[in-house]
Design goal:
Blueprint lengths: L18 H7 L11 H17 L6 E4 L6 H12 L3 E5 L6 H9 L6 E5 L6 H13 L1 E6 L6 E6 L4 E6 L7 H5 L3 E4 L5 H15 L5 H9 L5 H18 L6 H10 L9 H13 L7 H8 L3 H14 L3 E4 L2 E4 L1 H6 L20
The structure holds adenosine-5'-triphosphate and magnesium ion.
The site of adenosine-5'-triphosphate (ATP) has 21 residues, from helix 1, helix 3 and helix 9.
Subcellular location: Cytoplasm
EC number: 3.6.4.-
GO molecular function, one term: ATP hydrolysis activity
């Protein structure tokens, strides 16, 4: 089902070439970071406490779906501490030696950011335990019975790990973070704030009703809000006078196949398969993924978090189940066994 590929407009993953736009729009300081009030307050305490003591703060784990601001927050942590930021990622740390090189170059107080930390290779992960706990690594030299391990001091640093799948992290790794920030989807009012800020930076004439319309369709995700703003701006400039009003936003988003709830074709395909082919479930995620012709990780990490948050889909031990709201969204009447709103809906607020 090639035509059910996710509309790129609504993917929470960064697109190719989108990095430059993102860096322009990234908040630089905690005060500029919109939303996530709990995380912001907790982080402020962690950072101020550490600054007061003159020691690097505890290691921080940022967990949450793509596009909610984990990378931005890691940069903010370094900026707030006045420290240098070193950036790497789980997949880049294939061998323990790669990590050892990275660690031994750190200077005191540095912030080391490991993106996608759940994808770190096992030997590197084991080296990380000791580094996080004792600021020390054991470098093994040689092979077989002649191998010796040389202890290496490393400068006290702060590790910031980011993950879209905190469940995939091993217990020992998770336990070594002093502070875990669980990032939540943003409510529409917060996304409006993100949009107003971005419009100012980009010089877009964004009207209040236009911001409201785009925010409601951005799946609780700042990256998507910013992307839709750029698309709507193009439409406004080409087909109208440049002002982003509600009507312009609606017309533009219709072109991009983004519905009122921000669901795209893949989301609708998942719901439709769940309801029409599996009677509303329960059905396993891999079966569901095959039915829509997608990878199960895409369905699990990209579609589902938002469908759950929007109260459309429930994850149960026996599989995925469509809620009454999902049946209604497809214009069908739900059978009596369909769960009601299993999660707080973004749209009742
Ligand atoms: N709280 C926020 N306030 C303002 N803008 C934000 C906020 N969070 C994210 N953004 C915007 O969304 C974009 C994506 O954020 P970021 O790259 O930090 O997400 P991420 O969680 O690291 O995503 P991924 O999991 O794909 O790495 C940023 O460039 C920034 O413009
Ligand atoms: Mg990131």
């Amino acid at each position: 089902m090639e035509d059910e590929a996710p509309a790129p407009e609504l993917s929470p993953l960064a697109e190719m070439g989108e990095r430059d736009d993102e860096s322009t729009l990234r908040p630089r300081r905690l005060a500029e970071f919109v939303g996530q009030p709990r995380v912001r307050e907790q982080l402020r305490l962690v950072l101020e406490g550490a600054k007061g003591r003159g020691a690097p703060p505890d290691h921080v784990l940022l967990s949450g779906p793509p596009g909610l601001g984990k990378t931005s927050l890691s940069m903010i942590i370094a900026a707030e501490l006045g420290s240098a930021l070193r950036i790497t990622s789980g997949p880049a740390l294939e061998r323990a030696g790669d990590l050892a090189a990275m660690l031994s170059n750190l200077v005191e107080g540095d912030v080391l950011f490991i993106d996608e930390i759940h994808r770190i290779a096992r030997p590197a992960e084991e080296m990380l335990y000791l580094a996080m706990e004792d600021f020390r690594v054991d470098v093994v030299v040689g092979k077989g019975p002649g191998a010796t391990s040389i202890p290496l001091e490393i400068a006290p640093f702060t590790l910031v790990g980011a993950t879209t799948r905190s469940g995939a992290l091993t217990g020992p790794l998770r336990d070594r973070f002093g502070f875990t920030a669980h990032m939540e989807f943003y409510v529409p009012e917060e996304l409006e704030q993100v949009l107003r800020r971005s419009a100012t930076i980009l010089g877009v004439d964004l009207r209040e009703d236009g911001a409201h319309e785009i925010a409601g369709r951005s799946r609780g995700t700042p990256r998507i809000a910013n992307r839709l703003l750029r698309r709507v701006r193009d439409y406004a400039e080409v087909r109208a006078d440049g002002a982003v009003t509600r009507d312009i936003a609606r017309a533009a988003l219709k072109v991009y196949d983004v519905d009122e709830l921000g669901l795209d074709r893949l989301d609708r395909a998942v719901l439709s398969a769940l309801v029409r082919s599996f009677g509303g479930g329960p059905v396993g995620v891999s079966t569901l993924a095959v039915a829509v012709g997608e990878e199960s990780t895409t369905v699990e990490e990209v579609c589902e978090p938002y469908l759950v948050r929007a109260g459309m889909l429930a994850r149960t031990p026996r599989g995925r189940v469509a809620t009454a709201a999902a049946w209604a969204h497809l214009g069908l009447s739900a059978p009596p066994q369909a769960p009601g709103h299993s999660a707080p809906s973004l749209f009742d607020e």
